[in-house]
Write a structure and sequence with these properties.
The chain has a domain of 121 residues. The chain is an alpha+beta fold and 184 residues long. Helices cover 41% and strands 11% of the residues. A 4-stranded antiparallel beta sheet has the order 3-2-1-4, with helices on both faces. Helix 3 packs antiparallel against helix 4. It is extended and about 80 Å long.
Length: 184
């Protein structure tokens, strides 16, 4: 237990005259005044919302992650992903940092994201199944929502892409982008 002696303490006495007053009261924003200046965006119509949902539901899946008879998440062809558990989405920020650093977009970003997420998810789900889809035969985000809501998984019989080939191509593309740059 420590003790402080009275001789080690120093007191300073201030008077009101020693304080610097705030003279510019006109520039102070009052809370009530700030609230009256807030401009909220106009509410979207139900038709606009329905059109946005329809566009989102048309997006093709690139890959689906499944484990033990349940859908874990997906990657869309534009490189966006969705995990059904917040715990499964951890670490995606660093993956996106890599994607940005490598300049990957679209299906290239989706391939890289799928590979990295699969590696991460296998730590939690040793029996993880990764289904990658050909662009022409891929189910849509809307199909994914229906399967998820029905408690179903995707069948491996849906035409899939050779994942090993895509992983090899993605690895080569990343290697080329990093190390085989044109010095011209």
């Amino acid at each position: 237990m420590s003790s402080v002696s009275a001789s080690s303490l120093s007191f300073t006495r201030l008077s009101v005259a020693d304080l610097t007053p705030l003279n510019d009261f006109d520039s102070i924003i009052k809370f009530d005044d700030a609230l009256s200046n807030i401009q909220l965006p106009a509410e979207r119509t139900s038709e606009e919302i329905a059109a946005q949902i329809a566009r989102q539901n048309e997006m093709k899946l690139f890959a689906v992650f499944q484990s033990n008879g349940k859908i874990v998440g997906n990657v869309l062809e534009n490189g966006w992903s969705r995990m059904e558990s917040n715990a499964d989405g951890r670490g995606t920020g660093s993956i996106w940092d890599d994607i940005s650093q490598f300049g990957l977009t679209g299906r290239d970003a989706a391939e890289y994201l799928t590979q990295r997420l699969a590696d991460q998810l296998r730590e939690r789900y040793p029996d993880l199944e990764v289904l990658s889809f050909d662009a022409a035969q891929a189910p849509t985000s809307g199909d994914y929502q229906h399967q998820l809501a029905a408690g179903k998984t995707f069948s491996a019989q849906i035409p899939t892409v050779d994942v090993a080939h895509h992983q090899a191509q993605t690895s080569y593309d990343l290697f080329s982008a990093l190390f085989l740059q044109d010095d011209a």
